Structure to design on (202 residues):
């Protein structure tokens, strides 16, 4: 899938427009950075082979809550569907981290298909930036699904309003200092789980 994302985005970060470090001939004046495949809804939610019982429980409960909350069709993300271009973005490393931690989300622009305003927790260089998602490839590659982006945005705003994101980020920072922070995206799944519980409570 990374190859598809690079082709779809014209080998540029979806938000910043930067090119990957390993692009041999970037256009003159083009900035380069580390690019990552960023799943909109965490890929680790489908990792039921994980021996970690806590991760398994969180994944199972999160899917159950998703099935009961709102009108989102969870069949869009079942099985291998979670690992497809419709649930993924090509992002520069720091933006991937912010997006995965629900500190950054896409707000749809009414009346403009596949167009968004970037919203963030706090002001950044990307805050308020308008972007239009376009397939730059000759191949038929799905654009990010608006419903999945809307789901991510809803979680981000709940976490922002409740202050949970900052609390959890602080806790994870403490864990990182003793080398306990997961590197497979499971921490993002934990944040999603918290957001869902708060949506049910509100």
């Amino acid at each position: 899938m990374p190859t598809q994302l690079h082709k779809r985005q014209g080998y540029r970060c979806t938000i910043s427009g930067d090119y990957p470090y390993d692009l041999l001939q970037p256009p003159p004046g083009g900035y380069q950075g580390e690019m990552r495949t960023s799943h909109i809804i965490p890929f680790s939610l489908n990792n039921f082979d994980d021996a970690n019982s806590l991760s398994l429980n969180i994944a199972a409960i999160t899917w159950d809550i998703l099935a009961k909350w709102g009108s989102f069709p969870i069949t869009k993300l079942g099985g291998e569907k979670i690992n497809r271009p419709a649930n993924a973005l090509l992002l520069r490393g720091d933006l991937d981290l912010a997006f995965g931690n629900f500190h950054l989300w896409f707000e749809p622009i009414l009346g403009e298909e596949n167009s968004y305003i970037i919203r963030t927790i706090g002001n950044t260089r990307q805050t308020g930036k308008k972007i239009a998602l376009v397939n730059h490839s000759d191949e038929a590659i799905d654009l990010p699904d608006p419903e999945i982006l809307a789901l991510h945005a809803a979680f981000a705003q709940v976490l922002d309003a409740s202050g949970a994101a900052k609390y959890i980020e602080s806790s994870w920072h403490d864990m990182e200092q003793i080398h306990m922070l997961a590197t497979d995206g499971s921490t993002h799944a934990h944040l999603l789980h918290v957001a869902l519980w708060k949506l049910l409570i509100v």
Observations:
- Residues 38 and 89 are 5 Å apart (CA to CA).
- The chain has six helices and seven strands.
- The longest strand covers residues 115-120.
- Residues 2-201 form one domain.
